[in-house]
Amino acid sequence: MSVPQTLLGLLEREPSHGYDLKRDYDAYFGRGKQLPFGQVYATLGRLARDGKVVGGEAEPGEGPDRKPYSITDAGRAEVDAWLADPVEPEPHLQTILFAKVTLALMLGKPADAYLDRQRAAHIRRMRELTELRRTGALVDVLLADHALFHLEADLRWIDVTSARLTELAALVTRREQ
Q1: What pLDDT is stored for residue 149 in this prediction?
Q2: Model's pTM, two decimal places?
Q3: Which residues in 100-134 are b (16+ Cβ under 10 Å) and which e?
Q4: N or C: which end of the chain has fewer CB within 10 A?
């Protein structure tokens, strides 16, 4: 999971305090592994240092004062580049795929286009592995088979998710309405 880009995507949706970012991250992307508060604030500090977010004045609230963060144009550009760049096809990348699709929907960006690009990247990798199966030694063939089975599962997930984008969009944007 790419925590900085995910937090930037959540900030592109709306300015937020670190507490709210952690809550949203955990709710959408932290299934089984929640984000520590320290990591949220350390990441926000690096993003601010790099000019991708700006922090506002601390606001009083329940508990400690909270500092709101907003995304900058540089941060938006990073989110757009990250969403547009297909993940290197490999087994166990589903959490990144899910995060990209969900954030794209939250931000009103074309999740279907991202899924199409990801599908094409998977197919390219599968062609390479199929060639290796045809010409490689037994160990290479078995490893290629393993990778191909995982990539096939990812492609099935991409197809199922493409068919459910409207439903997922309604779910992840409901909070904003």
Answers
A1: 93
A2: 0.68
A3: bbbbbbbbebebeebbebbbebbeebbeebeebbe
A4: C
Q: What is the three-state SS of 48-81?
A: HHCCCEEECCCECCCCCCECEEEECHHHHHHHHH
CA atoms lying within 13 Å on the CB side of residue 24 = 25
Q: How far is CA 111 from its chain centroid?
A: 11
Asked if residues 123 and 158 have their Cβ atoms less than 8 Å apart, the reply is no
Angle 111-135/138-163 helices, nearest 10 degrees?
160
* Nearest partner of 172 among 105, 99, 80, judged by Cα: 105
Q: Is residue 20 pLDDT above 80, yes or no?
A: yes
Distance CA 156, CA 149 (A): 11
